Amino acid sequence: MIQKIKKYSTTNTLVIFGIIFGVLFGILFPELALKQQVIGQIFISFLKMLVVPLVFSSIYIAIMGLGSLNDLKSIGLKTIGLYLLTTALAVLLAIAVMNLVPIGEPTSVEGLEYVKASQVAPFTFEAMILSFIPTNIFNSLADGSMMQIIVFSILFAIASMHLHVKRQELMLDFFTAVTNAMLTMAEWVIKLTPIGVFSLISYVIAEQGVDVVLGLWKYLLMVISVLLIHAVVTLPALLAIFAKINPFKYLSDVREAPIMAFSTASSAATLPVSMRIAEEDGGVDEKHASFVLPLGATVSMDGTAAYLTVAVLYISHLAGVDLSLMDQVLLGVTVVALSVGVAALPSASLVMMVVILNQIGLPVEYIALIVAVDRILDMARTSLNVTSDLVVVKIIDQIQKTTIKEK
């Protein structure tokens, strides 16, 4: 654990240096900064490379980890339903706040004509539903159609539960190995973040000037405000309604885990702490903590979903793209679905940011504008992710205990 914290802290320090030197390089040597853009493009390509296998394998093992179909129908459905509910509420909150207090003035960048941005297709419910269903999964995998991959991986995992036990174990071992390999590769790519940040930042500074970057304080404040509202209003309300306990006392008792998450910016690194705190200080049954929290580290991403929603809407404003209400609803559905496949690693949401920007038709170069404060926001949103996990496990625990008493 200490080694992981030290490793992530080192990465954070290097990213800060990458930002500083990128800004200086873009100001002092704009011509060179424009020519080295390929380095940033390579970094983004590495992020894209991980998306499909990581999402497919992580969702598969999350569903298979539920065990039997009976478990899937009982505690599994309750758990996933609550996780999706909290994530959806976080996304709705982000959309509402961004519409009430829109930030991001339209900007234009010479050399980055927003051709794709004008190709946002009109929303229809039929088109949305059909877009979720793959007609050829191999085409979906090759094209990186995330929604279709998610639907197929869920159905594939459920179908795998009908196989012989030995074959189930074989399949689970295989996809667990795939996930672990992808996570290892993700760690390698994340180590390249300082270089990627340097390249992207210096290019944007050289192309747009420093004024745009200085305007990020509104974006930073907006993301943190949405995360705080969800943490102190939405989640406590769910605890009070479903678990019927004093939410703030419970959150105070388990505060060590979100603090650890803030320090490491990793849900995976925080998982052992979350399980111990939930059991010892939160009064959660061991079997519920052992089942719900590991699943939450994969599928519960309230902070990440809220962050992605604010970031994409902010980028759309910068690009001068006015998304309709139904476009924003579709964005929300996509973010909720994709957040399930976000790896529990620092800055892994950058992977999903690339996917969403491509889907909407916005240039991925805009990631450079928000990556300057991404590490700070990464710690904040990871802390909210873990807080949401602790809220859901307590609700499940209280519901199960109440059900047993009634029987």
Keywords:
single chain, 407 residues, mainly alpha, Proton glutamate symport protein, globular
Question: What's the topology here?
Answer:
Layout: H1 2-28, H2 30-35, H3 37-64, H4 69-100, H5 125-132, H6 137-143, H7 146-160, H8 165-191, H9 193-208, H10 210-214, H11 216-243, H12 247-253, H13 256-264, H14 267-280, H15 286-299, H16 302-318, H17 325-339, H18 349-360, H19 367-370, H20 374-406
Describe this structure in words.
With 407 residues, this protein is mainly α. It has one domain: Proton glutamate symport protein (Orthogonal Bundle), CATH 1.10.3860. Helix 4 crosses helix 11, helix 15 packs antiparallel against helix 20 and helix 17 runs antiparallel to helix 18. The N terminus is likely disordered.
Order of helices and strands: HHHHHHHHHHHHHHHHHHHH
How far the N terminus sits from the C terminus, by CA atoms, comes to 42 Å
Rg, nearest Å: 21 Å
Give the number of helices: 20
Globular, elongated, flat, extended or rod-shaped: what is the shape?
Answer: globular
SS-derived structural category: mainly alpha
Look up the CATH topology: Proton glutamate symport protein
Strand content: under 5%
Count of discrete structural domains: 1
Helix content: over 70%
By DSSP, the count of extended strands is 0
CATH class: Mainly Alpha
Integer average pLDDT: 78
Query: Spans of 5+ residues with little confidence (pLDDT < 50)?
Result: 1-9, 108-121
The CATH architecture assignment turns out to be Orthogonal Bundle
For the biggest sheet, the summary is:
none
InterPro entries: Na-dicarboxylate_symporter, Na:dicarbo_symporter_sf
Subcellular location: Cell membrane
Keywords: Cell membrane, Membrane, Transmembrane, Transmembrane helix, Transport
Protein name: Dicarboxylate/amino acid:cation symporter
